[in-house]
Write a structure and sequence with these properties.
Helix content: 25-40%
Strand order of the largest sheet: 9-14-13-12-10-11
Strand content: 5-15%
Number of helices: 18
Largest sheet: 6 strands, mixed
Radius of gyration: 24 Å
Shape: globular
Distance between the termini: 48 Å
Length: 559
């Protein structure tokens, strides 16, 4: 297979050296922001000089971006492409729309919100899922992202799952397959790549693979019935890539996790499911892999297992040398490298056959900024709002009413897992601004504050509630990498019970995980007002509190 069959932007594969071919298999992480001083995760995101060396000298195949605004990404993606040996994959974990990671674009509620709508109206849910995918792909391409690392096709049938949770399209393989393939139809309207993750299924785990290696003890029969069907449906629907999960699955391979297992990636995914697209690893810096295998041995093991794309290695330069040495020593054949690079070239041809996906050297600032006009379009925002409204759950005596005797002594108690990393709060966040406009005093609690609700120290010196006045409890908990919900849920449960016992609880708003709502419901009096939203962004807060207070379209900052 030669480059003549591909986009003119891609050279003939026969002109690439072994080192250049191997480098194309690597996708490295980079900050979405432009200046080194803005880097948030220095252990993972290299400074500009190092990144430029990886792109220009090593010739890595792509980057995965996190953080920044949509405008940042417009500039950043062009800087990256201009410094690369060959056109880059520019990937992002934008499972919930571009605005999930990059401010200014559309941020959708998590996929499980659409699953809740499907319980009542499957056709409407499929429509929402398809528009979700289409908007994500369109906005991604507008700012230079060409690879949507979604949809998640894990079946979240474990309420204690710390990392998948609301990222899944549901709790049954049928629901997940139905909505994930609708999402794919939306992405496929545009020349962007998609990715089903995390094979063979991360939905029934209680360990976060970012931290440690989960073990999935199910039988092969159970895996075939529950975990595999959504992947089979996604493959049949033409998904471009499948991402491996860092899971040990003894019924399939008792020695190596899926990412490093040829029995799973080659025999199961390539063989049994017939997938011939790109197989990429989950991030190789994650604890499940990085803590057990060498920085340079892990990428080599993943390649031997059947992976085409080696995502976020600890040491890209060292890993490339290790793989080239393995070829020289006969451990890996040149043909094996060529197989992966041919798949990579096919995928890049899909992207770069569209000239608009390669920013022209003569593009003016005005022309580049014109691309931003497609971001956060009214129709996309309207769909996100509809999903939030139609998936919202309410109960008790609404709207919430404030007894005159408590006026001026009301409290807005916000509980999150980590205030430092909480991007959806701020001075103008509706969860703060709307109660404040009604006289509520703000109190913030997270896992790092001294927040024992039953302490004896006076309120002035710790997060101990007053024994007087009504309290609105707002809880933000969902599954997140590195931020499992278990401890935050335990803290929220203690506060809930204390406020009920003390007679202070006036109302409850829960944002994120429906499993937190399920845990709270048995304790809530039948008439206590509550509202639940799958979303945590400003729009979700505004809709939830508008419902709770009985106010239509409260004035808020929706950024």
């Amino acid at each position: 297979m030669t480059g003549a069959q591909f986009s003119p932007a891609l050279p003939d594969l026969d002109t690439l050296s072994l080192e250049q071919q191997v480098a194309q298999m690597f996708v490295v992480r980079a900050s979405g922001r432009f200046f080194d001083r803005q880097i948030e995760f220095p252990d993972w995101e290299p400074p500009a000089a190092t990144l430029e060396r990886w792109l220009h000298d090593l010739g890595v195949g792509g980057v995965i971006l996190v953080g920044g605004s949509a405008v940042d990404l417009l500039v950043r993606s062009r800087w990256l492409q201009a410094r690369a040996q060959y056109p880059l994959f520019v990937a992002a974990d934008i499972e919930e729309g571009v605005g999930q990671r990059f401010a200014g674009a559309t941020w959708f509620p998590p996929p499980m919100a659409i699953a809740a709508i499907a319980d009542r109206d499957p056709d409407k849910a499929r429509h929402y899922a398809e528009e979700y995918g289409a908007t994500t792909a369109r906005e991604a391409l507008a700012i230079g992202i060409n690879w949507v690392l979604g949809p998640v096709v894990d079946v979240n049938n474990n309420p204690q799952n710390p990392v998948i949770n609301v990222r899944a399209f549901g709790e049954t393989p049928e629901r997940v397959a139905d909505l994930a393939t609708a999402f794919l139809r939306g992405v496929q309207r545009f020349p962007a790549l998609s990715c089903a993750k995390h094979f063979p299924g991360h939905g029934d785990t209680s360990v976060d693979s970012h931290v440690d290696l989960p073990v999935l003890t199910h039988s092969a029969e159970r895996l075939a019935q529950v975990e595999q069907p959504p992947f089979a449906r996604a493959i049949a629907a033409g998904v471009d890539a499948v991402m491996s999960a860092h899971l040990l699955i003894p019924s399939w391979d008792g020695d190596r996790p899926a990412t490093l297992s040829s029995k799973i990636l080659t025999d199961r995914l390539r063989g049994d499911l017939g997938f011939d697209g790109l197989i990429l690893t989950d991030a190789l810096v994650m604890g499940a892999i990085a803590n057990r295998y060498g920085a340079n041995e892990a990428p080599l093991l993943a390649l031997e297992a059947g992976a085409d794309i080696l995502l976020m290695p600890v040491d890209p330069a060292g890993a490339i040398r290790t793989i080239c040495d393995a070829v020289d020593k006969g451990r890996v054949s040149p043909e094996r490298i060529r197989q992966s690079v041919e798949r990579i070239w096919r995928a890049k041809h899909k992207i770069f056959a569209e000239p608009a996906n390669l920013p022209p050297a003569s593009e003016t600032t005005g022309e580049a900024l014109a691309r931003l006009q497609s971001l956060a379009a009214p129709d996309a925002g309207a769909i996100a709002t509809e999903i939030l409204q139609e998936s919202q759950q309410v109960g008790g005596s609404l709207p919430l009413s404030l007894p005159p005797s408590t006026a001026g002594a009301t409290r807005n108690l916000l509980l999150v897992d980590n205030l430092v990393t909480c991007g959806f709060l701020g001075r103008q966040a509706p969860a703060i601004a709307i109660p404040q406009s009604r006289g509520y005093a703000l109190q913030l609690v997270d896992l790092h504050t001294d927040s024992n609700p039953e302490g004896d120290t006076p309120p002035a010196s710790r997060d101990e509630p007053s024994t007087e006045g009504a309290t609105l409890l707002q809880v933000f908990i969902r599954g997140n990498p590195f931020g499992g919900p278990a401890r935050a849920t335990e803290l929220a449960d203690r506060w809930l019970k204390h406020l009920l016992t003390s007679g202070q609880l006036q109302g409850v708003a829960i944002y994120g995980s429906p499993y937190v709502l399920q845990q709270f419901l048995p304790h809530l009096p039948a008439d206590l007002p509550y509202v639940f939203s799958y979303g945590q962004m400003h729009e979700a807060q505004a809709i939830a509190l508008g419902t709770l207070f009985g106010v239509r379209d409260p004035v808020v900052n929706k950024s």
